[in-house]
Structures are given as structure tokens and as C-alpha cells.
Amino acid sequence: MTTLMILGARMAQLPLIRTALEDGFTVVSVDPDPQSPGHTLAHAAHTCDLADADACIELAKQHRISGVVTLGADYPMSVLAQICDGLGLPGPQPDSVYCTIDKAAMRRAIGGHLHYEISTTADAIRAFREIEAGVVIKPSVSSGGRGITIFPNQTAGDLVQRAFARAAGLSRNGRAILEAYIEGPEFSVETITAGGETTVLAVTEKETSGPPYCVELAHCQPSKISPADYSALADEAVRGLRLLGVDDAPGHTEIRLTASGPMIIEAAARMGGGFIASHLTPLSTGIDMMRAAIAIALGQVPDLRPRFARGAASRFICPPAGYVRNATGLEKVLTDPDCIEADLYVTKGDQIRPLRDATDRVGHVITSGPTGSAAEKAARRLANEIQLEVTPMIV
């Protein structure tokens, strides 16, 4: 039986683990949290730091794995590439993965807007003054949108200092990036690259909370843009992945469509999180991105044929910060014919943190419809059905 190692076993990885099990693979899960729900599903579960390449490679050898995959997070990608390289397995190479997870290296590879690598408060203030416009400050190495602060206009230096401290504190190398802020709606381009050829599967339209944190609130496929804009976004994603050297891997490239054309924010050699790869892409196109990623990891040719053109959308539940007094509406939403999936991650008495990044979202709904607009409308309606009564936090 073919053995597949899955890096990560938390809630976000469950669709990937279940898919592998459905297809008859022996699943080895690796995650630092022994309570991760995916561990209970896997044939073999290991509690291990996903940054410990030597330990993970040893586990891969022990289980004689045929491939290694992950879903929706940058954190395991360095080890994934090292496993592939060390064991001669199909997958992205360490150098290209490094360029996707280190934001400074990424910016050097693909070019684009003005940026500075900063490691001290003095660096942050100096770079801020040199740009003389809106800026983005973010960790050099992180994931999930953590530590990002956006100032669309010039702002007092003390705020920049605090933003740098936050970003550097959440960066795995202790450094941050300060770059020029670019205006325009945000999208992501979902791709599969195999044998040097990149196939664009979908373009995802996004809604965010706006500055200063721009947390993703909703996703929709297909995007409601012109064919010309679709082609421009797709071409820019392919260009960026080529410059980064990404091959034999899924891709998730975040792009803003500016007045002068598309500009890459970040690119990843992995599937997109937030249900984009696991739910929206197969619901809107019929392409199973997780099975395609598994096929690549096993050295097989992935099936990337679209089977239909429909709409799919997700919307996250993001109430004000406080303590949950009561939650209603989820049961009703789950019975709605437009609902594909819905969940709340909090219950009575739980604390809801201020919305700073994706980890602060407390629930979601996923819908399908004949068009992206129809699915988006249904997702908004169903999200509004879920009501959380919250006692505000005393600051």
C-alpha cells in the first residue's frame, strides 16, 4: 500500500487527510500538537516540530513514504522540500521554497514595488521616511497573515515602531519587510505546476477587513472580472512562479489588481488555505486540487480537466471582540440547500480576540450556486443568520 506523509494534522489539514484515506493511502500525520484531530484519523501519528527537518526526514525513511504533502500553510514547506530533496521524491526544491517563504527573498526574485528588509526600529523609521507614501509592514518569515500592518497613508512614526515590533516578534527569523502599499482589489490565483508547465485552475476574488490588518473575510470563485483582467492576473501568477523556480507543486499567488496592472503581493508553492483549495476550487470547476497535489507528490500526472463552471463562496464569522454569551442560527444554516458547510469554532464563555489575522476568525460558511455572484449572495445571507451575542472586552 502506498504511504503518504501529511505535514500538519490540525483542522485545516482534515480535508487532505480524509481525501488520502478515501483513496486508500496509508497516511502518516506529523504535527507538533498531540491533540491535533488529524492524528486520530491517520494510520500513524507523530508529534514532531514541523521545522525539525532531520526528525521529519527520519520519520519519512522509517515509514518508507512515497510522497509528502501539506495544505494551506507555509510553515511546513521548508521541511517538505527537504524531505523531497533528501529522499529523491517529487516535489518543490528547497531553493524555490525558500524564495516563497522568506518574503525578502521573494521580493528580490520577482521584483515589483519598493521594499526594504528591516531588522531594527531605526531601519523601520528610515525606510518609512524614504518611501514617503503608504506602507505595509510584515514579518519576513511567517504565515496566516500574522503580524501584518498596513498604513495606506503616511502615519506617525510611533505607530510604525509598534508595527515593526509586532512583525519582527512574529517572524521566524526576527526580521521584517517594509514595502510600498499598493491600491487595488485583492485576488489569488490557484495553480498546479508539473513538469515545468503551470496550469491556472481558478482566480479567487477576496473581501478583506481593510487597513490596517486586511484580514480575509470572504472568498468567491469565479471572480467577477473581465476576461482581460483574468488573463492579466493569470499571466502574472505564472510569471511569478517561474521566477521563483516553483515546479512540481500547487501554487497560491496573491495579487492586487492596480490601476497600472496586476502586482504580486506574495506567492506560495502550496495550496491556498481558507477553504480555497479544499472546497471552492472543486465546487466551482470540478477539479480536485487536493488529489492533484497528491498525484504530483507521487510522481503521477494530475487530472486538471474542468468538469463544469459553477460558483462557490466562503464567508467567515468575525464578530466584535469579547466573550460569547450565546450563539444561534448554525443549526438553521446547516439545513439550508445553499449550504455546503458551516461551523463555529467558539461556544458560550469563549473569548473572541480583536480581528488581527486569520486565527481570530471564529466560524465560516461555504456555499455553492450557479454563478459566483449567486454563491456569494448565499454565503452573505447564511453568515448573517449565525448570530453571536458578545459581552465586550474591558480594555
Automatic annotation (TrEMBL):
<keyword id="KW-0547">Nucleotide-binding</keyword>
<dbReference type="InterPro" id="IPR016185">
    <property type="entry name" value="PreATP-grasp_dom_sf"/>
</dbReference>
<dbReference type="Pfam" id="PF13535">
    <property type="entry name" value="ATP-grasp_4"/>
</dbReference>
<protein>
    <submittedName>
        <fullName>ATP-grasp domain-containing protein</fullName>
    </submittedName>
</protein>
<feature type="domain" description="ATP-grasp">
    <location>
        <begin position="102"/>
        <end position="298"/>
    </location>
</feature>
<dbReference type="InterPro" id="IPR052032">
    <property type="entry name" value="ATP-dep_AA_Ligase"/>
</dbReference>
<keyword id="KW-0436">Ligase</keyword>
<keyword id="KW-0067">ATP-binding</keyword>
<dbReference type="InterPro" id="IPR040570">
    <property type="entry name" value="LAL_C2"/>
</dbReference>
<dbReference type="InterPro" id="IPR013815">
    <property type="entry name" value="ATP_grasp_subdomain_1"/>
</dbReference>
<dbReference type="InterPro" id="IPR011761">
    <property type="entry name" value="ATP-grasp"/>
</dbReference>
<dbReference type="Pfam" id="PF18603">
    <property type="entry name" value="LAL_C2"/>
</dbReference>
